[in-house]
Amino acid sequence: MLALSPGLKRAVDIVAGTLHDYTLDELRPLLAAELPRHAGFDGWSEKAVKNAALALGVDPVVAALIFVNKAAMIDAWFSVVDEVMLTELSPTTLTIMKIRARITSLVEARLACVAPNREALRRALAILAMPQNICLAGQLGLRAADVMWRAAGDTATDYNHYSKRAILGSVYAATLTVFIDDESEGYTDTRAFLARRIEGIMEFEKVKAQLTKGPKIGFSMSRFLGQLRYPAG
């Protein structure tokens, strides 16, 4: 039997009206992908969940059980963005790129995924900026960075693992704030901003490599942080 792609299977199931047979876990990514189309108008709200459910032929009562609050809706949408990004850039495609191009392409793939729903993204970022959601915002940023670094082929398990994700997470978050208000053609302003930040990451990695190589130098975290704060010359 011919296996259907996830996207085609979703379309067939919607037409056939069989989504009522799906479990809550199976419905979550489908609704999460549909939600931003409505969140741009209705906010990340129960109304948006209801309209997304009706658009897919899902019982709104069942959909309400999946998303307990706004944060859960945004979390689920960002998970969908992770998956879409990975389908847009295959491992084979990424392998032939230099590391700088891999990271840039992965971030740009994420931006392309959310571009049709920039108002929903704007509202999502406003919610994540609330004090009660700061921890979640950090977690989502680190998760996105982790997915991107892993896709780029990073296998670090020492402190580099965490520093790379923290830096890329902050770069991605800053890029999103530029992106939501970018009216330039083809988002050229956002691309330029991202390019400058990626250059900063690459320079940072070079500094780390210089500090840690060679048996005579040794690595000192205090010296490393001191040189970052008070660069020579």
Keywords:
single chain; 2 domains; Tetracycline Repressor, domain 2; mainly alpha; 233 residues
Commentary on this structure:
The chain contains twelve helices and no strands. The protein is mainly α and 233 residues long. It has two domains: 1-68, no CATH class; 71-229, Tetracycline Repressor, domain 2 (Orthogonal Bundle), CATH 1.10.357. α2 (24-42) crosses α8.
User: Mean of the pLDDT scores?
Assistant: 85
Q: Level of helix content?
A: over 70%
The CATH architecture category of the largest domain equals Orthogonal Bundle
Number of domains: 2
β-strand number: 0
Strand content: under 5%
Terminus-to-terminus distance: 67 Å
- Which class of the largest domain in CATH terms? Mainly Alpha
Oligomer: single chain
Question: What best-fitting shape do the alpha-carbon axes yield?
Answer: elongated
Regions with pLDDT < 50 over 5+ consecutive residues?
A: 1-5, 11-17
Number of helices in the DSSP assignment: 12
State the gist of this model:
With 233 residues, this protein is mostly helical. Helices cover 74% and strands 0% of the residues.
